[in-house]
């Protein structure tokens, strides 16, 4: 097939995938090797002297109908990732596919139809709404920008959207300052939903709100997801918000995903020490464990600079398990358990991936001082238990295989004896 014909076919295939909606559970968005390096320029000639490696090689997918939570401390690159997948930022490298179509470098024109399908809700409901516009104008803006005339007119549709998000449709002509923080976030949600998107990326949607209001907004988003079949990527700096709403959770550290797992697996048995540390910072609403303060893991210092991230595993400078291999070799994000991918040489709740490397780095010894003895003991215990379990399984498998081989050998000898007896009978007839 000529290159041109191949190109045409590929385009046609892309268009076909685009026109079909992803069924629940199918991949809606696929990200491969995604990077965003912000150049640092200096001097009169604005020469590039370095780069902020905000997002430094992400691979993940978002499935239709799910909520993917993305967590990590401030500065880990979560917002940058959100802006990249909504194409508000141009990636430095990697690809972004939406419903099978490569949208990595689509220009404004090419992105226009896609804009309807992918929307973003921003963190700060105070600065993301133009104070000079009425909420009618704000929520109706996507229709005007896309040149869409909803049935019954824009005003009627905006009023319907306002009531969907629990606001009074009569307040159509009011200005943002006349609303509370929670109400403003509802306005932001109404605007994001105007064009019936498929994917909504919400960057810290409730962290600027009072705790009492946070649950209301989270519940609203949950209800809307069910009613409208939305897919969410929800970005948050801690696990307390995403723990209730997410189906899967990606944990980011310094521009990388260090763990990606189903919510339940992540909660039952986190595998990356960083995930474990983040989880230990979340208050446990279980009265029996109220005094479990000693299990808290305190991380030393801040996230290192993304301008020159640490070598090997980026978490090694703060990890209480770090050994030489962590300083020299970057661990790959591997699926160690079904549905649980982790990038760590010495994972929690799993067999050690580098058991030969036992000498802790000096930084790790210092970090271990901040980790309760109970945590260290439990971590060593579970890893040893998993290793023993796996060793047992391997022995059983090996025994089964040897058994099978023996049977094979028997079959072989049976055949041999059969042919022997055949030749015997042949011989006897010849005689
Ligand atoms: N436009 C930009 N130019 C240069 N550096 C940037 C830019 N935007 C973000 N960064 C840097 O990229 C890194 C990641 O930032 P990002 O906002 O994505 O992190 P985050 O995990 O979302 O943190 P936060 O929760 O504080 O928003 C930070 O070090 C930040 O300073």
Describe this structure in words.
GO terms for molecular function: ATP binding; ATP hydrolysis activity. InterPro entries: AAA+_ATPase, ABC_transp_ATP-bind, ABC_transporter-like_ATP-bd, ABC_transporter-like_CS, Oligopep_ABC_C, P-loop_NTPase. It comes from Streptomyces roseochromogenus subsp. oscitans DS 12.976. Belongs to the ABC transporter superfamily. This is ABC transporter domain-containing protein. The chain has a domain of 217 residues: P-loop containing nucleotide triphosphate hydrolases (Rossmann fold). The radius of gyration is 28 Å and the shape is globular. The protein has 431 residues and is an alpha/beta fold. The chain starts with a helix and ends with a helix. It has an eight-stranded mixed sheet, sandwiched between helices. Strands 2-1-4-5 form a four-stranded antiparallel sheet. The structure holds adenosine-5'-triphosphate.
């Amino acid at each position: 097939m000529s290159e041109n014909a191949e190109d045409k076919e590929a385009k046609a295939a892309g268009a076909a995938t685009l026109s079909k909606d992803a069924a629940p559970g199918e991949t809606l968005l696929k990200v491969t090797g995604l990077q965003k390096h912000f150049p640092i320029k200096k001097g009169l000639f604005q020469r590039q002297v370095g780069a902020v490696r905000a997002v430094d090689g992400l691979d993940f997918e978002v499935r239709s109908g799910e909520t993917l939570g993305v967590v990590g401390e401030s500065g880990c690159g979560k917002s940058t990732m959100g802006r990249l997948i909504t194409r508000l930022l141009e990636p430095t490298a990697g690809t972004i596919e939406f419903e099978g179509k490569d949208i990595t470098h689509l220009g404004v024109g090419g992105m226009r139809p896609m804009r309807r399908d992918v929307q973003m809700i921003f963190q700060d409901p105070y600065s993301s709404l133009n104070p000079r516009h009425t909420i009618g104008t704000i929520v109706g803006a996507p229709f005007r920008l896309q040149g869409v005339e909803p049935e019954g007119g824009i005003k009627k549709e905006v009023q319907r959207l306002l009531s969907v998000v629990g606001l009074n449709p009569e307040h159509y002509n009011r200005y943002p300052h006349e609303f509370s923080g929670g109400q403003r976030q509802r306005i932001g949600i109404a605007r994001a939903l105007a064009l019936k998107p498929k994917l909504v990326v919400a960057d810290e949607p409730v962290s600027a709100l009072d705790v009492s209001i946070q649950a209301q907004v989270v519940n609203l988003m949950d209800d809307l997801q069910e009613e409208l079949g939305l897919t969410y990527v929800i970005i948050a700096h801690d696990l307390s918000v995403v723990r209730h709403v997410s189906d899967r959770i990606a944990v980011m550290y310094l521009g990388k995903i260090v763990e990606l797992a189903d919510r339940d697996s992540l909660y039952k048995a986190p595998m990356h020490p960083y995930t474990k540390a983040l989880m230990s910072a979340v208050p446990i609403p279980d009265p029996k464990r109220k005094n479990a303060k000693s299990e808290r893991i305190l991380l030393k210092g801040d996230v290192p600079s993304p301008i020159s991230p640490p070598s090997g595993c980026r978490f090694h400078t703060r990890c209480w398990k770090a050994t030489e291999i962590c300083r020299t070799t970057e661990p790959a994000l591997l699926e160690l358990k079904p549905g649980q991918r982790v990038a760590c040489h010495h994972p929690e709740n799993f067999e050690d991936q580098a058991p030969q490397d036992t000498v802790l780095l000096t930084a790790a010894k210092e970090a271990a001082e901040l980790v309760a003895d109970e945590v260290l003991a439990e971590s060593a215990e579970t890893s040893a238990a998993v290793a023993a379990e796996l060793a047992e399984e391997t022995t059983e498998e090996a025994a089964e295989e040897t058994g099978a081989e023996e049977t094979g050998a028997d079959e072989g000898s049976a055949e041999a004896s059969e042919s022997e007896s055949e030749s015997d009978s042949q011989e006897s007839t010849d005689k």
